[in-house]
Write a structure and sequence with these properties.
heterodimer; A: Rossmann fold; globular; B: 267 residues; mainly alpha; MetI-like fold; AAA+_ATPase (chain A); ATP binding (chain A)
Chain lengths: 258, 267
């Protein structure tokens, strides 16, 4: 059983190498329960790799990972994952996709939970549809509902809105913020959009490229505000974060000549 | 907007192409009748369509070689059904193992590829030696003919399943043993069904050839007997029946495909 007082995520000296070349780390990151952590960095900096390690999809080359006090030994329903692509199972209806992680529940409870989640994600009418009959935004909502179904204490999101158009993306950001506030789930959200990171994160973490190490780690009150973008602090943090990410990208790709 | 190429295969055939097709068949029949009537070749080479029709009626009512046309056809179809049932089941199981377990891939992969490249008739003689000339060797032959295409298609599809699907299932609590059945097989379904269509096609061509050895009753056996007695009209009748029933079988499989894999091309 996860211990109640433990940190949501404890990453200690974690590295990950591919064919002898270090791609990530060493990374130290401790996330308190209830936080919404956004992880931002240039492409290829290892942010998705870090998320995959916390999810338990791969093992770190070095260092240790804990989630709610428990060592991470593999994927687990207590750590829900939303991918960049929705990755809904096309042979199942939307409702059956959401129910995928609820096998241990009795039938009636399962149906109730699925209805609740579809309602929560604005898909109440879409349960009987197949994934390919949904729009991009609805698919990603269904993927979020599926990940939330087993009541994970930690939700890992890997650039979940990267493939959506700008309008849908902004709406989804508000929805995921509302979901986070309602469910109290700890969220670790990987993005390459600085704007998104600042808008959503109660804590903003930036990774530099090759190998990815943490170069910025800041708490932010912005997501608690009603209109974060209207706050002067928003532009300020975004500006600073943009600089950091740009500098990190230059280290990786060499200086930009302009 | 109208597209010349219709992407949605579910829309029924409209009147015009249907009439065109019927017209094409009629033109073909007329040409055949004409060639037969002018007697360029004797009727033993080119019988009249009417003669084939008479044979259709005769074999359907009186029978041929002691069995009616329907009986010949049904026996052949039964052989295909049984052989393919075993072959497809074995092919899916084997493909799943080859796709998932690297050791099995190393051990059996080359063997499956080897058997697949063999024309089934190449090992018919061996099967006759082993199992005699009754039903058994024929079922074995069809099993061996239909298994490799399904196994290869399944193995390829299993290896091609995106790891996000596997990871998603695992983090939703699916165990190592559940993943192959709850995720890998269903996501390989489109390729498996394509493999089955190939397998049934191979089995169909094979059964007709296999029935040249003690194949009566059986549509291939019927054609073989007719050839021996120079009854060209029965041979042609057999060919037409084989072709039409083959089309029907493929149509049924296509329908099954649309039912089971409605997401094909829209994943």
């Amino acid at each position: 059983m996860p211990s109640p007082g433990a940190e949501a995520v404890e990453v200690r000296g974690v590295t990950r190498s591919f064919r002898g070349k270090r791609a990530l780390g060493p990374v130290d990151l401790v996330v308190e329960p209830g936080a919404f952590v956004t992880l931002v960095g240039p492409s290829g900096c290892g942010k998705s790799t870090l998320l995959g390690l916390i999810a338990g999809f791969a093992r770190p080359s070095d260092g240790s990972l804990r989630a709610f006090g428990e060592p991470v030994g593999g994927p687990d329903p207590s750590r829900g994952v939303v991918f960049q692509e929705p990755r809904l199972f096309p042979w199942l209806s939307v409702a059956a996709n959401v129910a995928f992680g609820l096998r241990s529940l009795p039938k009636a409870a399962r149906r109730e939970r699925v209805a609740e989640l579809l309602e929560l994600t604005g898909l109440a009418e879409a349960g009987r549809l197949r994934p390919y009959e949904l729009s991009g935004g609805m698919r990603q909502r269904a993927a979020i509902a599926r990940a939330l179904a087993p009541r994970p204490r930690l939700l890992l999101m890997d650039e979940p809105f990267a493939a959506l158009d700008a309008f849908t993306r902004e709406r989804m950001q508000d929805e995921v913020r509302a979901l986070w506030q309602r469910t109290g789930t700890t969220v670790l959200f990987v993005t390459h959009s600085v704007d998104e990171a600042v808008y959503l994160g109660t804590r903003v973490v930036a990774l530099s490229g090759s190998p990815g190490v943490i170069v910025l780690d800041e708490r932010s009150k912005l997501p608690a505000l009603e209109h974060p973008r209207a706050d002067p602090g928003f532009a300020e943090l975004r500006e600073r974060l943009t600089e950091v990410v740009r500098a990190a990208a230059q280290v990786r790709n060499g200086p930009v000549t302009s | 907007m109208r597209f010349a190429f219709r992407a949605d295969p579910r829309r029924g055939m409209t009147a015009k192409p249907a009439m065109l097709r019927a017209g094409a068949v009629l033109v073909l029949l007329a040409a055949w009748q004409l060639i037969a009537m002018v007697r360029i070749w004797p009727p033993v080479f080119v019988p009249e369509p009417a003669a084939v029709w008479r044979q259709l009626v005769r074999t359907s009512t009186e029978g041929y070689s002691g069995y009616t046309l329907a009986e010949h056809l049904l026996v052949s179809l039964r052989r295909i059904l049984l052989g393919c049932l075993y072959g497809v089941t074995g092919g899916i199981a084997l493909g799943l193992l080859i796709g998932i377990v690297p050791t099995v891939r190393t051990l059996l992969g080359p063997l499956v590829t080897f058997v697949r490249t063999l024309p089934p008739l190449a090992y018919l003689s061996l099967l006759v030696i082993w199992f005699g000339i009754e039903e058994e060797p024929k079922i074995w032959l069809l099993l061996l003919a239909s298994l490799p295409p399904v196994a290869v298609a399944t193995a390829e599809a299993v290896r091609g399943v995106h790891e996000d699907y596997l990871n998603a299932a695992r983090s939703l609590g699916a165990s190592r043993w559940e993943v192959p059945f709850r995720v890998v097989l269903p996501s390989a379904l489109p390729e498996i069904i394509t493999g089955i269509r190939v397998a049934v096609g191979v089995a169909y061509t094979t059964v007709v050839a296999a029935e040249t050895v003690n194949g009566v009753p059986g549509i291939g056996g019927m054609v073989r007997d007719a050839q021996r007695y120079n009854q060209t009209d029965v041979v042609i009748l057999g060919i037409v029946v084989i072709g039409l029933s083959g089309l029907l079988i493929d149509f049924l499989l296509q329908t099954l495909d649309r039912r089971l894999v409605p997401w094909r091309g829209r994943g």
